[in-house]
Amino acid sequence: MNPQGAMTFLIDVVINLFIFLLLTRFILQLVRADFYNPLSQFVVKATNPVLTPLRKIVPGTSLVDVASLVAVVILIILKVVMLVSLNGQGVPPVPAMVIFALRSLASLMINYLFFAVLIRVILSWVAPDPYNPFTAIMTQITEPVMAPVRRVMPAMGGLDLSPLVVLLGLQFLMVLFAI
Fold first, then answer.
1. How far does Cα 128 stand from its chain's mean position?
2. 108-160 confidence digits (pLDDT tens)
3. Is the CA virtual torsion 104, 108, 110, 115 positive or negative?
4. What is the 8-class DSSP label of residue 132?
């Protein structure tokens, strides 16, 4: 029996799921996704208990939900402190944790977009209902990244290669910044 490993797993999963919800809320607001979509409503209701009090301290702008990003950074630092403490190691200095959290945030954002584009590609193979809430959200999240590439690339006889270019670009960013 490994109770320490089980607790590490539980902390990691719970915090990562909430980080995913916060990033989803940030991206949905950034791309101006449909607020009345059932998935958007779920994300808003799940993240409001944390973001409503935080918005009193961290004001946002009309385009960027800064409170969501601050909450993600805080959760990453909290996760590191909890996991390091649970494993009996010393807590790293605050500047190192902040730098780690910001690098992790950049990595999470790039990975989020990568998998959103990948999911949209897979959805295009099965030709789902465009009014399906999940399909609509995936389109709204990925279109701001894919549309500029589509405008630059020439038509390829009915094939849309913009997802491939976007995926390669996102991977390039990961390698360039060594995230």
1. 23
2. 999 999 999 999 999 988 877 888 899 999 999 999 999 999 999 877 777 88
3. positive
4. S
Paired tokens of 177: 């910044």
Provide the whole-model pTM. 0.89
Distance in angstroms (rounded) separating the CA atoms of residues 140 and 117: 11
Residue with tokens 């009309």: 62
Q: Residue 177: what are its φ and ψ, rounded to 5°?
A: -90, 5
Cα dihedral sign, 77-29-167-153: negative
In order, the DSSP letters of 16-71 are HHHHHHHHHHHHHHHTT--TTSHHHHHHHHHHHHHHHHHHHHS---SS--HHHHHH
Q: Tokens 């208990």 map to which residue?
A: 49
Q: What is the pLDDT of residue 179?
A: 67
Could you give the 3-state DSSP secondary structure of residue 108?
helix
Rounded to 10 deg, the angle between the 94-126 and 3-30 helix axes is 70
The burial class, CB within 10 Å (0-12 / 13-18 / 19+), for 151 is exposed
Per the structure block, which two tokens stand in for 78?
């909290």
